[in-house]
Amino acid sequence: MAGEPQADCLFCKIAAGEVPATVVRETEQIVAFRDINPQAPTHVLVIPKAHYRDAATLAAAQPQLVADVLREAAEVAAEEKIDATGYRIVFNTGAGAGQTVFHAHAHLLGGRGLEWPPG
Ligand code: 5GP
Ligand code: ZN
Hints:
The chain is an alpha+beta fold. The protein has one domain: 2-Layer Sandwich (HIT family, subunit A), CATH 3.30.428.10. It is built from three helices and five strands; from the N terminus they run αβββααββ. A five-stranded antiparallel beta sheet has the order 1-2-3-5-4, covered by helices on one side. α2 (55-61) crosses α3. The longest helix has 17 residues, at 63-79. The model has no long low-confidence stretch (mean pLDDT 97). Bound molecules: guanosine-5'-monophosphate and zinc ion. Guanosine-5'-monophosphate binds at residues 10, 21, 33-37, 45, 92, 98-101. The site of zinc ion (ZN) has 6 residues, from α1.
């Protein structure tokens, strides 16, 4: 069923606490944890606990959850004190764009200068 945990999904396991992660924020719907291979001083992944393969699938199925992810990303940015200097929220979608984990997630990046356009 849409949104149900997938046995072979790393981020479902992190959401369930079965794989350890450095969690910085958690609500009933989302969990935010530090990326294991950070690309910036703050690099936090914000995920819905429900499983959707990418942001587009999530948005089509549960638009309110997209809003939850974005709101909680902003809360983490404030907690990390990168809200004043600026931050970037990225949803890599598809292997060609660098998506490697097919459970929707927002990258929250900040704490250094961020070039635009990105690579
Ligand atoms: P994607 O490439 O799919 O947009 O992002 C997946 C992210 O998950 C990558 O930035 C990668 O470093 C991170 N990642 C992969 N495995 C783990 C893990 O076991 N724990 C944590 N905290 N992050 C992970
Ligand atoms: Zn999953």
